[in-house]
Amino acid sequence: MADLHFREEKVFKDPVHDYIYVKDPFVWSLINTRAFQRLRRIRQMGTSFLVFHGAEHSRFTHSLGTYEIMRQVLSHFSRNHNWPQDERMVRLALASALLHDIGHGPFSHAFEGVFKTHHETWTRRILMEDREIHGILSQIDTDFPSDLLSVISKGQKFPLLERLIASEMDVDRMDYLLRDALHTGVTYGRFELERLIRIMRPFGHDIVIKQSGMHTVEQYLLARYFMYTQVYLHSTTIGSDVLLGKILSRARDLFQEGQLKYCPKELVPFFEKPESEITVEEFLQLDDTVMHYAFSCWREEEDLSLRDLAARFRDRRLLSSVACRHPLDVDTLLEIQHAFDDAGIPSDSYLSYKAISTGGYLYKQGIKYVGDDGRLRDVCEASKLIHSLVPEVYHRFYYPKDLVEANHDRHTLVELLHKLQR
Amino acid sequence: MADLHFREEKVFKDPVHDYIYVKDPFVWSLINTRAFQRLRRIRQMGTSFLVFHGAEHSRFTHSLGTYEIMRQVLSHFSRNHNWPQDERMVRLALASALLHDIGHGPFSHAFEGVFKTHHETWTRRILMEDREIHGILSQIDTDFPSDLLSVISKGQKFPLLERLIASEMDVDRMDYLLRDALHTGVTYGRFELERLIRIMRPFGHDIVIKQSGMHTVEQYLLARYFMYTQVYLHSTTIGSDVLLGKILSRARDLFQEGQLKYCPKELVPFFEKPESEITVEEFLQLDDTVMHYAFSCWREEEDLSLRDLAARFRDRRLLSSVACRHPLDVDTLLEIQHAFDDAGIPSDSYLSYKAISTGGYLYKQGIKYVGDDGRLRDVCEASKLIHSLVPEVYHRFYYPKDLVEANHDRHTLVELLHKLQR
Amino acid sequence: MADLHFREEKVFKDPVHDYIYVKDPFVWSLINTRAFQRLRRIRQMGTSFLVFHGAEHSRFTHSLGTYEIMRQVLSHFSRNHNWPQDERMVRLALASALLHDIGHGPFSHAFEGVFKTHHETWTRRILMEDREIHGILSQIDTDFPSDLLSVISKGQKFPLLERLIASEMDVDRMDYLLRDALHTGVTYGRFELERLIRIMRPFGHDIVIKQSGMHTVEQYLLARYFMYTQVYLHSTTIGSDVLLGKILSRARDLFQEGQLKYCPKELVPFFEKPESEITVEEFLQLDDTVMHYAFSCWREEEDLSLRDLAARFRDRRLLSSVACRHPLDVDTLLEIQHAFDDAGIPSDSYLSYKAISTGGYLYKQGIKYVGDDGRLRDVCEASKLIHSLVPEVYHRFYYPKDLVEANHDRHTLVELLHKLQR
Amino acid sequence: MADLHFREEKVFKDPVHDYIYVKDPFVWSLINTRAFQRLRRIRQMGTSFLVFHGAEHSRFTHSLGTYEIMRQVLSHFSRNHNWPQDERMVRLALASALLHDIGHGPFSHAFEGVFKTHHETWTRRILMEDREIHGILSQIDTDFPSDLLSVISKGQKFPLLERLIASEMDVDRMDYLLRDALHTGVTYGRFELERLIRIMRPFGHDIVIKQSGMHTVEQYLLARYFMYTQVYLHSTTIGSDVLLGKILSRARDLFQEGQLKYCPKELVPFFEKPESEITVEEFLQLDDTVMHYAFSCWREEEDLSLRDLAARFRDRRLLSSVACRHPLDVDTLLEIQHAFDDAGIPSDSYLSYKAISTGGYLYKQGIKYVGDDGRLRDVCEASKLIHSLVPEVYHRFYYPKDLVEANHDRHTLVELLHKLQR
Where does the record place the HD/PDEase domain (chains A, B, C, D) (predicted)? Predict the structure, then answer.
C-alpha cells in the first residue's frame, strides 16, 4: 500500500451528504470489489417500496453514506478530541463502516427466517474467505482482517469503534434514518446530523454526549421512533414480508418434494444445504434480481398456492390484516386455521399472525451523558421524553381479503376475523 | 364507472412532490394493473446508477410524478383559464401522463438499439391489447383507448393534451428533471415548478407562456441543459450503455449460432423473432431483473468475450474512453480495429465510437410566448440565453483500458489512442 | 365589494410556502393598509436575533404565512368535508388569520411587562377604531368587524374558526414553527404541514384529528417542544428580554423624574399615560425602529445605568446567568441584591431572577381524536410521548458578569452566585 | 494574541451554511466589536423587502456567511493545493471576508447617491481609525491593519486574497446569492457551492478553475444572472430606491433652507458636512433604524412633498413605472417634466428616468480555466452560455400613478406616458 492518499480527493455525488469523499486508495479498492458492487442489487429497505414507492435505494448507497458519516466523525474527533491518533485505527473505522452490511443478502428479514441463514455469519466469511476483499484487507497487515471482524462482530477489542459502528447512536443508523427519510419522502427521520456529531465525544471506552446536547439526542431518538412506527413497521410492509416468507417456504417445500418446476440455480444451494455448507461464492450470487426472477418463474408453477403467491408479490396484490385487540391464544388460532382450510384457502400458504414490537431500539442500555459532576448517566434519566419511548407490542392477523370475499363461506370467515378485533 | 370520485383523496407519499393525490377510482385502477406495477422493476435512468449511485429510482415513481404534475396543471388551468371543461378530457390527460412510459422495457436505449424494438409500438399495443389496461380504459367509453393512444402518439386530435404530455415544456420532462436531480444529488435539475405552472396557459391549440415568465422558462431550459450535459450524457454512462449493447449483441449472435448456454426464457422471443411477432404477454415479462439475471448467467458462459463483458457490467469495470479532437474517418477507425483485433482484443466486442449530441432538446421549434402586441413568438427570439443553447456534438472512442495495459502490444495501441486526441 | 375575486390569483413569493395566493380583493386591501404594513418593522422573534442571527424576519411575513395556511386548510376542508359553505365564513377565517397579530407592538414581551399594555386590547381597538382597517371590514357588512373580533378574541360565536386560529393546533403556530425554524437554521421546528392539514377535520364545534394521524400530531407537538426548549426559551434570549425590560423601566423612571434627556416622541404617550388613554394613532407609531432609535439616544444619557444598559443591548454585551438548583427564597434574593448594591452594581438595573416555564403549551386541554368507537378522546390518552410533555420550570439568575469581574468585591459576589447553583 | 485557537470550535447556527465555525479568538473579537454588531441593523438587500417580503436579513448574517465560505475555501486549498502556508495569511483572508462590508451604511445605493459618500472610504477609515477594530487588528502586528486594507481595496499586494474576496468568482458573491435566494424564496440563486469550491485552485497570482468544472461555473454565473434580472434589478425595487433618493434629497434641501422641522441628530452631519469632515463615530451612528425613524418623523413635516414621499415609503405606496421603448431624449424628458409641474405634481419630487443595466457582472475580464495544454483561457471562450450573458440596458420612467389618476389633467399625462412606451 504505497500511497497513503490520493493527491486529490475522489468524490461520489450523494443525495444525502452532497459529496462522499475518498482520499485513501485502500477505501477505493474496497468499493471496487465484486462483493461490494453486488450491494447495488440489494435494496436497503427490502419490501418497503411496496408501501413507500420511493424506497428503491440500495445497500450500496447506504454503505457509502455510513462510511462518509464515520469519516466526518473521525475528522471532528481528531480536530477536537485528539483521537484517533494512528492511521490504522482510522482505516479500521472506515472499513468497518463501509463493510458493515457486506453479509446481507436480498430481503434479509424474510429470507433469513425461511433459510436459517445469518448475515453476521456471511459478513465474517466474506471478510475472511472472499479472496478479493480479504486480499485488500491483508495488505494493511496480516491481523487487519481479523481486527476488522472484531470491530464489526463486537469482539470488545476496539470498544470505541464498536460503539461508533453499532450502538444506540451509531453511524449506521444515522445514515439510514436520513437516507430512508429522503427516499420515502417523510420528514420524520431528519435530525441535526452535524450537531449530533459535534456533541459526541470519546470518553474512556464509550462514546458519550455532553449534557447541553440532550435535546439533539432526543431529536435523534425521536427520528428513530417515528421511522420505526411510521415506516419500517408499517403494517403493509410487514404483510409484504409475510407474503415473501410464504413464497419462499412454499417453494422450498415443493423443491424438497421434487415438485418445483422452475428454480434459478442460484437458489438451489439454499434449498439443498444447511448454511454451513454453502460457499461464499454461492452466497455472493444472490441478490434482489435473482429473487424477482424466481418470483417471475414461479407465477407459472403448477402448484396453485405458489403461483398465486408469486403473482401477488409481482403485481402488488398484498395480504390484508386486522389489528387484534389481544394476543391470540392457540385455540383461537387453530379455529381460524381450520375454518380457512375448510373453506379451501390453505392456512399454511395464506395466514399469518404477527406480534410486532416497536422495541428494537432499547436505548435504555444506551446513550450516556457527562453530567455537571463529571459522572456518566443514561440519557433517559435526564429526559422524560426519552423515558417515554418504551417498546410496545402490536398484534396483527394477515389474510387474503380477496379470497375471503370471493369465498362461499365468506360470512363465517368474516365473522371470525371480526372476533379478533374485539 | 359508478363513482366519479373517492370520498376522501387517496395519497402516495413522494420524495419530489410530497404527496401525490388520487381522487378518481379510474386512475387508481390503472395504477393497480400488472403492466403498471411492472414499472417498479425498470429503472428510470437506465445505467446512470453506475455513475450517480443514487439513480436507482424506477419508472413507476416517475410515472406517478408525471401524473401529479398533470393534475396540478389541470387544476391551475381550470381555476384560472377555464379549461378543460369536461371530465373526459381530464381523464384523458391524467391517463396519458400516467401511462406515457408504459411501453418502456429495461435499459430502453441499448435494448432497442440491439433488438430493433420501439417503446412507442409497445405503448400502443399495451393500450389496445393488454386485457387489463384496455378493459379499464374501455369502461369510460369505447373510443377512450384509441383517443388516449392518439394523445400519446401525437395523433393531432387533442393538440393541447399532446403539448402537455410531450413538447418542449411538458409534464414528463418537468417530473424527470426534478426527480433525477433529487436522486443523483445534483442541484442542476431544479427549477421553479409552481411558477412554471403559473405562467403556462392554453392559447388556441398551443400551450404558451406569458412574457413576464420568460426567466422562468430560461431557468427550466437551463435545468434541462445542465442535466443533459452533466448527467444524462455523462461519458461514463454512455460507456455503460455501450457495454450493455455489446453484451446483448454478443449474446444474440451466440444464441443464433446455437452457442449460448444459458438464456432466461423471457429473452428468447427477442432473440428469435422480429418485434411484430412478439406478444404483449411476452413483452411484459421483461424487466431489469431479467436482464441482471441474464448477465449473472452469462458470466459463466464459455464464450470468453461474453463472460468478460457480463462480468464487467456486474462488477462495474467499465470501458474507458478518449475524447476525439475531430470526427474520425473510416480509415482511422479501420486502422484501430485492426490493431486491436491483431492484439487479440476483439474490436467487435470491445470498441465503440460514439457521436454524442447534446441536441436532443431542439427547443427552437418550441415554446411560444404572448408578446405585448398579442402575437405569438418563439422564446428564443426574446432570450439570448435560450438562443445560445444550440446542439453540440462530441465524439468519444470507447475501449477496455485494462486489456490494453495488460497487452503485449500496448505501446502501439496507446499511441493510436493518443492520435485520436490530437 | 363588487368583485368577489381577481381574474388571476395574485401571489407573494415566500421562503416557507413558496407562494402565498390571494384571490380575494378584500384580502388584498387589508394587506395594503398602513397598520398591516407597519408589521414589516416589527420582528417576529423579538430579541432572538441576538442568539440566532438569522431570526430577523418580521410579523408581516408571519401574518401572510398564517393567512396562507388558513387558506390551504379551508380549501382542504371544503374539498373533503363540505365546510365552510359560505363566502362570509371564508372571509372571516382569512381575515382573522391575516390580522391576528395586528395589535402587537415592538418586543411585545418586555414592552407589555413594563408599560402594562396588552396586544389583545390593541387588536380590538385597531379592528374597531382604525379608520382604514375598520372601513375595509365594514364593506363586507356592518357586523363583520365585531364578528371578526369575536373570532380573534374567542367570543364563542364561531367556535370552529376560533379553534383554527388559536388552539393547540392552529394555523398561527403552524406558520411560526416552520418560519422560525427556517430562519434560525434549526430543523427542530419542521413537521409535515401537508399531512397535518389532511388529518384535521371539523367535528361539531371542534377541530379534531383522525386516529391514524396520531404520529403526525406527535411530530407537530414535538416540533413545538423543541422550538420552545431550544429556541424560544434559550437562556440568552430571555436574558436579552430581561435587559430590554431593565432599559425601559429605567428610562420610564427617569422620564417620570424629569431626568430623561432624550426621548423619541413616539414613546412619550407610554411614559405619560395609562394604556386606556393612548390613541390608536399613537400606538401605530410604535415599531422596532423607534425602540432601536431610543436605545441609540439613551447610550448618551447622563444616567450611568441607562447609558450602560442601552450600550449593552446595541453592542450585544448581554447579561450572563446561572441556573439555580432550587427556586430562590426571598432571603437569598435580598442577600444578593444587597451584596450587589453594596458593591456599586445597582440591583434594580442589573439583576433579575426568572422562573422559566416550558409549560406555555398545555396541550392536555387540547387536541382530540376520533376513536374507532366514534368517541372523542384527548391525544395524550393514546400517546405516551405526548403524555410525557409536561411543563417544567427552570430558574435562572441574571447578572452582569463583566461588572462582577471588574469589581473589587468580586470574590464575595462570585461566591454568592456559586451558592445559587448548589 | 496568546491562544491561537479555542480548545473547542465555537459555532453560529446559520440558515444557509448550517453552522459557521470559529476557532480563532481573533475572529471572535472582531465579531464582538460595536462596528460589526451594528451590521445587524442594516439590511443586506436594502429596499428589496418591499417586493420580496422575506428579504429582511442583515449585513451581519451575510458577513458571517462570507467568512464561513472563505474558511471552507482555505481549508480545501490547504488540503489539496498546499496554500496558504502561514497563519497570518489565513487571518488576513478571514478578516477580509468578515469585514468587507464594514463600511456600508443604511440603503447604501440611494444614500451614497444623495450624500456623495462611499462605502470604500468608510471601510478604510473604520479599519484604520476605529479604536476597537484597529486595536484588535494591530494585536497581530503593526502592519496587519494596512495589509488588510490592501486586500480589501485591491492594493495588489496579496493578489490571491484579492481574487477570493472580490472578483468574478468571490466568496462575497457566493454567500449573498445563496442567502438572498433563501430569504426571497426563489430558487434562482442556488448553485453547487461545495463543487464550486472543489474546482477552484490557486494558479500563480490568480484563482482559476479546472476545465472539467466549466458547467459548475456556468451554473454559478447563471445564478447571478437570474438573481440580478429577477430580484436585484426588479423594477419595483428600483422604484423603491428612487423614492428613497427623492425623500433624502428633499429633506436635505429643506434642511439647507432651514425648513426641515424634524431631523434625527444622526443625520445632521450628512446634511451639513462633506464626507471628509464626518467622523467615524458619526458614521457608525447611522443604520436602518435611524432612517426609518427619520421617515416616520418626516411624514409630519409641513412640506407637502416630503410628507407624502415619506408616507409612501412607510405604507408601501410606491412609484409606478413604464418601460420605455427607446432611451428618452432631453426634449421628451423636459416635455414630461413641464407637463407634470404644470399639473401640480412637482417633477423634482416625483419623477425619475432610469437606465438599468444588467451589466454589473462583466465576467469577461473574469474567470480563467486551465486548458488541456496548460494555458489559461477565459471561460467565455469555452462556453456559449457564458458568452451569451452580455449586459443589457433597460429604460424605465417612474411616476406617481395615483396622483396622475386623481389629477384634472390626467388625460394629457396618460397620453404622454403612453408615448414613452411606443
Answer: 55-186
